[in-house]
Amino acid sequence: MAAEIRHAASAQALIVSDLALSFGGNFVLKDVNVCFEPGQITGLIGPNGAGKTSFFNCLTGLYSPQRGSILFGDTRVDRWLPMQRAAVGFSRSFQHVALSAELTIVENVMVGLDTHSRAGWSEAFLPLPKGSTERNRNRSRAMEALEHLAIAETADFFPAALPPGVLRLAEIARAMVGSPHVLLLDEPAAGLNSVETRDLAVGLRKLRSKDLVLVVVEHDMDLIMDVCDTIHVLSAGRLLVSGSPAHVRTHPEVVRVYLGDDGE
Questions:
Q1: Range of the structural domain that residue 212 is part of
Q2: N or C: which end of the chain has fewer CB within 10 A?
């Protein structure tokens, strides 16, 4: 079933309608309507407390909205568990790099293929034919993901030996290695210097694909304006403005919010 849906979901939009989320009677998201198109890099921005991470958590199934719907193509997924969404092609990264210190970079990326693996853990790590074959195949796919982001030379290093920019790209490689249809990146430039952010921008452009819905939450406005095709702005849980970088950059409501005159 999941495989059939995953195959059919290729090149489908992610459509959010009238989404509302509250905690203890306090609204975090209020009637958000947005369509994320495949083939684009879409930015989601807003001041602290705007509801960006809560919105991401609704998309991935960590939070259950009280109202509204989330459709992937024609399939409604807003009541699905995170694992169900992952099985049909949803993948995400988190604000803080979460690579395992005990695994090499390529092994960390291979973790992104767990939901695609048929061998059990014992077969994967013991010298048994089935596990060995699958492990070799997964390593090959992980290496392709690292090569795509131009960090293949780090494959056999441990995370502690590498700078933050490389670790961020490795985490994105792990999110991408399973060929997702929806990729959600939560503040990928957090903690990076200007050179690392520039390398990240190059890596993000390489991810643009006609079959991929790619959404980036980010505070680095220069990065967002540089790589995104479309930008959506949240403020106090509401969708404030949507449009091209040029439109959003000069919109008076966006300027007002980012100058701190929003009354939050």
A1: 1-89+181-191+203-264
A2: N
